[in-house]
């Protein structure tokens, strides 16, 4: 880890601390361009804005998709206070960001929680393939 990367991770941790002080969950992230400039930063606002999807990693992935070309996004690095959750990981993949560097792992985070991770939601499927494929077929060609 370079001293510059450590500095960016410390900023993500500071954003997480500010988020907690503001009454939200303690997570923060920043997006850095290939030249080392901070392009955007954010913190968790799931409680203050009443939206369970307002994780900083997801918000920055959306920002990148709206403001960067695919080539620019591929050159970025996200520094984040904690390993992105599965929801955010999916958004990061779709946004085309270059890489993610995190401070706490998901396992380490769960070790710090008294309640552990969220319970899994039961899912069933696949079902109705012939019908469900119709609107999708050819879209990704």
TrEMBL record:
Residues 3-136 form the CMP/dCMP-type deaminase domain. Gene3D superfamilies: Cytidine Deaminase, domain 2 (3.40.140.10). GO terms for molecular function: catalytic activity. Signal peptide: none annotated. InterPro entries: CMP_dCMP_dom, Cytidine_deaminase-like. This is tRNA(Arg) A34 adenosine deaminase TadA. It comes from Kribbella jejuensis. The lineage of its organism: Bacteria, Bacillati, Actinomycetota, Actinomycetes, Propionibacteriales.
